Amino acid sequence: MGRKWNNIKEKKASKDASTSRVYAKFGVEIYVAAKKGEPDPESNQALKFVLERAKTYNVPKAIIDRAIEKAKGNSEESYTELRYEGFGPSGAMVIVDTLTNNVNRTAADVRSAFNKSGGSMGVSGSVTYMFSPTAVFGVEEKTSDEVLELLMEADVDVRDIAEEEDSVIVYAEPDQFHAVQSAFKQKGITEFIVAEQTMLAQNYVTLSGDALVQFEKLVDALEDLEDVQQVYHNVELPEE
């Protein structure tokens, strides 16, 4: 599963390159999660999950607090969660998750990004069947055997554990996210390279030349959109 982790690293590196954009998107996601339930992560699992993700992206406390306070207030601003699916060059498949307060604007922006980058929008279900919802954790300074042992002690089942460079990556079912997280925390591990629920492709494609340039243009265009929260794909990106 190392190939899949490479794509997650690439995505995270891309987002880290524009922190103000990342922080703004997390602000919306935190607000929506807090607005749906109690604005307290201890009683709101959705909010707790978002805050754990925000931590891995070093989102400032001020932005988190501001979003939660906004949810506590009388703001009537509402957002809709929408998923778009589409295709890039040479068999590339793309999933785009959005949070929007203007559905028509978001649909037009996503469609335009696909069209301008040589891609095309697909119908609902045309791409997601080739992806698996997955909880992913990345930790450092541990071996795969040590991670396996602590998960077994906590009686937590996972799909796979892989070593890559100086990291150990854990892949689990989405509903095991908090169980895996708790197992790590019981052993004093609270810092993660990645701690999120993602969509991993069942098969990957490799692009080169103009097709790769075109695909990277598509991903950049989508991630630049204000309403786009996550972009998932099945392309094996080259290492930097």
Automatic annotation (TrEMBL):
<dbReference type="GO" id="GO:0006355">
    <property type="term" value="P:regulation of DNA-templated transcription"/>
</dbReference>
<keyword id="KW-0963">Cytoplasm</keyword>
<protein>
    <recommendedName>
        <fullName>Probable transcriptional regulatory protein AV654_07190</fullName>
    </recommendedName>
</protein>
<dbReference type="GO" id="GO:0003677">
    <property type="term" value="F:DNA binding"/>
</dbReference>
<dbReference type="InterPro" id="IPR048300">
    <property type="entry name" value="TACO1_YebC-like_2nd/3rd_dom"/>
</dbReference>
<dbReference type="GO" id="GO:0005829">
    <property type="term" value="C:cytosol"/>
</dbReference>
<keyword id="KW-0804">Transcription</keyword>
<dbReference type="InterPro" id="IPR029072">
    <property type="entry name" value="YebC-like"/>
</dbReference>
<dbReference type="InterPro" id="IPR026564">
    <property type="entry name" value="Transcrip_reg_TACO1-like_dom3"/>
</dbReference>
<feature type="domain" description="TACO1/YebC-like N-terminal">
    <location>
        <begin position="3"/>
        <end position="74"/>
    </location>
</feature>
<dbReference type="InterPro" id="IPR017856">
    <property type="entry name" value="Integrase-like_N"/>
</dbReference>
<dbReference type="InterPro" id="IPR002876">
    <property type="entry name" value="Transcrip_reg_TACO1-like"/>
</dbReference>
<feature type="domain" description="TACO1/YebC-like second and third">
    <location>
        <begin position="79"/>
        <end position="235"/>
    </location>
</feature>
<dbReference type="Pfam" id="PF01709">
    <property type="entry name" value="Transcrip_reg"/>
</dbReference>
<dbReference type="InterPro" id="IPR049083">
    <property type="entry name" value="TACO1_YebC_N"/>
</dbReference>
<keyword id="KW-0238">DNA-binding</keyword>
<dbReference type="Pfam" id="PF20772">
    <property type="entry name" value="TACO1_YebC_N"/>
</dbReference>
<comment type="similarity">
    <text>Belongs to the TACO1 family. YeeN subfamily.</text>
</comment>
<dbReference type="InterPro" id="IPR026562">
    <property type="entry name" value="Transcrip_reg_TACO1_YeeN"/>
</dbReference>
<keyword id="KW-0805">Transcription regulation</keyword>
